[in-house]
Amino acid sequence: MPDRDLLIGRLPKCELHIHIEGSLEPDMMVALARRNNVTLPWDSVEAVRRAYRFGSLQDFLDVYYVGMSVLVTEQDFYDLATAYLRRAHADNVVHVEMFFDPQGHTSRGVAFDTVVNGLHRACRDARETLGLSASLIMCFLRHLDERDAERTLDAALAHRERIVGVGLDSSEQGHPPEKFRRVFARARDAGFHLFAHAGEEGPPAYVWQALDVLGVRRVDHGNRAVEDEALVARLARDRVPLTMCPLSNLRLRVIDDLVHHPLRRMTDKGVAVTVNSDDPAYFGGYVNDNFRAVAASLDLAPAEIVALARTSFEAAMMSAEERARALERFEVAVREAG
Ligand code: HPA
Ligand SMILES: [Zn+2]
Q1: I need a labelling partner for 166 at 20 to 30 A (CA). Which of 29, 145, 243, 299 fits?
Q2: What CATH number has the domain bearing residue 102?
Q3: 59 is in an annotated binding site
Q4: Is 40 in a helix, a strand, or coil?
Q5: pLDDT score recorded for residue 338
Q6: 192 has a pLDDT exceeding 70
Q7: How many A from CA of 198 to the centre of ligand 2?
Q8: DSSP labels for 59-74?
Q9: Which residue owns the Cα nearest ligand 1 atom 6?
């Protein structure tokens, strides 16, 4: 086996937890602010970078919502997603399921269609130019009320074939999944796959609710599930994947040191865990940086790293044939990497 970093670079993988607005790098943020005449509280790329010190999820979200205010036109959304998809391709990402936050845009007067048209076109072009498959998952902002989420779902129904799923993100504490019970039931009836952030800062009870009240098929983060043995057993038994994001957890102080990251404790109990970047422009690393950081801190063996990348294909929303083909290519790449 080659050394750990080389192996990580060579492994094909899926990225299943990326907020596209969180891939907005400071230089693009400043350039788009100029292009659209948007005033930011920061006057240079360096000043933007200095704002990236967070004590909690809410600290980050306050900066994140200001940052996304530079996204106005369909071309802005296209450029943002295209830059991310090229960067992901360089990390050997072959399949992306991309979150976006429509309410962060419609609340500023940007049309839902503008957002989806730009992102969808970037995904379609990436398939042709990079050979990478990419799909869109719309998230509801959980700090807003369910009626706002209902209106967002109504808007999404006109784009049903361009959006594969719905998720739940933003401020977790005090906004339990059950707050969105009805809108998730409607989304399921409309054929969307269901996801939710849970157990990032919120308690294990929120992960239970995501499973049993919302009926999600994958949990984003899920760190705090580790505090509840019965919950870990449930995740393992039902092979409910967790999309974990080590550098995000470190930067948002969900953990104080990567050596304490629950990833290994989860995989040891049979939970399907994947490694992802969350908001790479804000947290200091794309997906391979996340693999490298957690592999070094937890001293992961090559076989464990390979297993994490393999799990990303098992956790992805692919048809049985797509998955079989992708896994076949994955095993070839593993043999070549060795
Ligand atoms: O890490 C996150 N958690 C919750 N909401 C988010 N929105 C963007 N990133 C995040
Ligand atoms: Zn997230």
Answers
A1: 29
A2: 3.20.20.140
A3: no
A4: coil
A5: 78
A6: yes
A7: 10
A8: HHHHHHHHHGGG--SH
A9: 170
Query: How far apart, in whole angstroms, are the C-alpha atoms of residue 79 and residue 109?
Result: 20
pLDDT exceeds cutoff 80 at 2: no
Q: Is residue 336 among the annotated active site residues?
A: no
Residue among 25, 97, 172, 200 flagged as catalytic: 200
Q: Is 243 in the pocket of ligand 1 (CB under 6 A)?
A: no
Amino acid letter for position 65:
Y
Q: What is the pLDDT of residues 276-323, one digit of tens each?
A: 999 999 999 999 999 999 999 999 999 999 999 999 999 999 999 999
pTM score of the predicted model: 0.98
Alpha-helix runs per DSSP H in the chain: 4-10, 26-36, 45-50, 57-67, 74-90, 103-106, 112-130, 146-157, 181-189, 204-209, 229-237, 246-251, 263-268, 280-283, 287-297, 302-315, 320-337
Asked if 32 and 71 touch (Cβ cutoff 8 Å), the reply is yes
Q: How many CA atoms lie within 13 A of 330 on its CB side?
A: 23
Q: Show the domain range for 232.
A: 4-337
Tally of domains in the chain: 1
| In the block, residue with structure tokens 């080659």 | 2
